[in-house]
């Protein structure tokens, strides 16, 4: 198991996911900075991340090692208060970001790509692809 603190993995995972989202939206042809920000929020919000994490858990998509990384982040004692989201969603979201950071740190690029592709599909389905593609 990764010895990197879960808060650090979540910090790293947040950055990795943010870059993935930005690259994805730019590849889709979005160029207006305000609209890029608005669309990126659909992906990086704690609510979207928590909903996806619940799906991952329900579908039992994690290895034992990955589940340990997730649980460690989920159970991390938070010193700051979540904005605009309940604490449970914030914990799910932090667990997902820690997984993203873990996969990145471990250079598990195939796993990161696999989960990113699934995440994109879930977010697009929830927010309708057409909404994401419109400028």
SSE order and pairing:
Elements: H1 6-27, H2 33-44, H3 46-58, H4 64-74, H5 87-105, H6 109-127, H7 129-133
Helix pairs in contact: 1-2, 1-4, 1-5, 3-5, 4-5
Short overview:
The protein is an all-alpha fold and 135 residues long.
Overview of this protein structure:
- There is one protein chain.
- This protein has one domain (6-133): Ribonuclease iii, N-terminal Endonuclease Domain, Chain A (Orthogonal Bundle), CATH 1.10.1520.10.
- The chain is built from 7 helices and no strands.
- The protein has helices spanning 6-27, 33-44, 46-58, 64-74, 87-105, 109-127, 129-133.
- The N and C termini lie far apart (43 Å).
- The mean pLDDT is 90.
Overall CATH class: Mainly Alpha
Supply the CATH architecture: Orthogonal Bundle
What is the C-alpha radius of gyration, as a whole number of Å? 15 Å
CATH topology: Ribonuclease iii, N-terminal Endonuclease Domain, Chain A
Summarize the main sheet.
none
Number of domains: 1
Which bin fits the share of residues in helices? Answer: over 70%
Counted by DSSP, the helix tally is 7
Query: What is the beta-strand fraction?
Result: under 5%
Provide the low-confidence segments as ranges. Answer: none
Q: Report the average pLDDT across residues.
A: 90
The count of β-strands is: 0
Structural class: mainly alpha
Going by CATH, what is the homologous superfamily?
Answer: Ribonuclease III domain
Shape: globular
Order of helices and strands: HHHHHHH
Distance between the termini: 43 Å
